[in-house]
Amino acid sequence: MTGRSTSSILLKTLAAVRLRKAQALFLFLAADPNAFHRAEKVIDLFWQETDQQRAAASYRQVIRHIRRDMEADCGLNLKTEIGQITLEILDRKTPKDEFRETILAERWDAAAADRMREFLSYTTRLEGISNSFDSWLVITRSVLLRTIREALDERLANVQSARFDELRRPAELALELEPSNETAVRILMTLDWRGGHSTRAIERYDMLYRYLDEEFDQEPEAETIELLAAVKLNPAGKSARNDLTNRRPEVSISVSLLPSSDEIPGEMRGFGTVLFADLRMRMGRFREWRVLDEDSTESCTVNVKLRPVYGLGRYQLYVDVQRVEDSQLLWSEVIDSPETDWEAKARLLLANLANALSVVVSDRSLSDSGLAIYDRWLKAQALLDSWSPEAERAALSMLEDIIADTPKFGPAHAELAGALNVRHVLQPGSTQTEEVKQRALHHAIMAVSIDPLDTRAHRVVAWCYCHKREFGLAEFHFEQALNLNRSNPLTLASSALGFAFAGNLDRAAALVAETRRNSAVMEPFHIIYLAAADYLLGNYASAEEQCRRGTGLMPTVGGWHSLALWKLGRQDDSVRRLQSYFDEIRPKWQGDAVPGDAEIIDWFTSSFPLGDEKALADLHQTIASIMAARGAA
Fold first, then answer.
1. Cα–Cα nearest to 439, from 459, 467, 458, 481
2. Which residue has the higher pLDDT, 353 or 611?
3. Looking at CB atoms within 10 Å, which of 88, 336, 488, 612 has the fewest?
4. Domain 251-359 maps to which CATH number in 3.40.50.11830, 2.140.10.10, 3.40.50.360, 3.90.550.10?
């Protein structure tokens, strides 16, 4: 492998492999080299619609194709073990790392730039193999593009110190990948101007102007407009300047949600969180500022504080914008009744924020869904957060109406699928039929297809596959959700439980530990996710403690609590907790008749999609032991 780059070897192998699914599997493994993937997951990913025996045979055939077409002694090793597969790259450098190093190297490597383009092209030409693999391709392309763009931004930012003439090809690649990259446009305009091609420089500006107008409803930055004026005043370009500015926005913003000082009615309690998440998402779409992650170590310029208030029968959202440096209040307002016409109010809020920061923004990209649709979706989210049967029925009806009116509104599909996934847990006595499972999966796949970069959509798809007992695909989509937003405590806790149900205990344990490190921002119901995961991991003391803290948060808590107490040897406490659990569930039962103990147990044990038969058998045996001890008491 001496003298040859990792990417060139990978691309040569991709070109040599003639079978399309073999190319797809090779690309999948190459994107995460030296990591083991479960064969079951890979088979589900590429042969989702094929029966198990034929899928396994096709999997083995594809591996043979890759090994046959892969060059000997090339520094790659396709390694298969019992139930696992990995692509070993001996120098352990991923294409993503290699591309970044190449872009930042002193001399520009045109051949490496071509390899970047070729690598990206495979993430589009291999589409169509399966819905799940298509979503993986979109995420992989997005991650690779982000790495390349950030490295190009870093290189182009040093325009004052770099040899300016050598920036043409990096700028051309940056503009090819991101037509709105104004630093690249200014560099190319300046090079054209200095080379006596002022007309070409003006054409570049015109192309940028049209693109920004059509895609963002914005004008170019002030520096770009000033450069255009200089070109027109001095077409010969004899005094063309090199002092171009970095496109990274100077204003950094943190957004925080403060607790309400007043009691908020139950049906509105989750609305502040919904608005907070929505506003952060909106603010993150503008290039005039950057919104810092909650765990960022970077100091912010401005802090935006949101505080929900309920009084005199009205819901209000207080907004304060404060400059961090001197604690000066830049602007403050109260949004009255944000539950109605939220989109218009959010756009006005952003415009006021922009004025406070002396920048101009436009939020046209989020207005396409329509004001009424967006408001109804937010109301449905708030209703589902209350977790009552009545609110759930109203929310499901609202989401179905939204989908009927706007079939391409992805968040409604994801929300509906998520609600269908948990209704049998939240409504004791109900069951998740195959029809409901298929309906949930349909909407979840629609959500991922509409927006493959939506973390929630992947999380919901993962749970759909869990309930259908297709655990390989479930693990795949949990991983995609984590790749897209690992800082979200719900994604961490939910994925931890998902991996525990799938029987991948090592992965579950790592995610449980990671979730606990985010305990400061965990919601109360995350405790129940961790409690069930800890029980399946054998961490019974932790599971018991979390169930005790989470009593009443979810209808399944009492069952897990009794099980954990039994495993800890506290048999009398376990029996008493199971009896109190029966008493809790009977008034909430959704059936016509009052349930017996056996019916409650059947509902509890059937609620969880356990992939490990031993774990399921142990669950039934432990409950049987508790019931026997209760009968003997």
1. 467
2. 611
3. 336
4. 3.40.50.11830
529-538 pLDDT, tens digit each: 999 999 999 9
Q: 363-372, 431-440, 558-567 — which is least confidently predicted?
A: 363-372
**Which CATH number is correct for 157-233, 1.10.1040.10, 1.20.1600.10, 3.40.50.300, 1.25.40.10?**
1.25.40.10
What's the CA gap between 62 and 40, in Å, rounded? 15
Nearest to 159 by CA among 186, 195, 177: 186
Region of residue 240 (phi > 0: left; psi between -120 and 50: alpha; otherwise: beta) = beta
Tell me phi and psi for residue 581, to 5 degrees.
Answer: -65, -45
pLDDT tens across 378-423, in order?
777 777 766 666 777 888 888 998 898 888 888 889 999 999 998 8
pLDDT > 90 fraction of the chain, expressed in percent and rounded: 36
pTM of the model: 0.71
Q: Which residues pair with 87 in a beta bridge?
A: 78
Is-contact 79 69, C-beta < 8 A? no
Per CATH, which fold does 369-474 belong to?
1.25.40
Q: Are 500 and 513 in contact (CB under 8 A)?
A: no
CATH for the 486-633 domain, from 1.25.40.10, 3.40.50.2300, 3.30.559.10, 3.40.50.10470: 1.25.40.10
What is the 8-class DSSP label of residue 451?
Answer: -
Pairing of strands 302-311, 251-257: parallel
Ordered strands of the 289-291 beta sheet? 289-291, 251-257, 302-311, 314-323, 329-336
CA 330 – CA 328 distance, rounded (Å): 6
The residue among 594, 600, 568, 599 whose CA lies nearest residue 581 is 600
Using CA atoms, how far apart are residues 381 and 166, in angstroms rounded to an integer?
Answer: 52
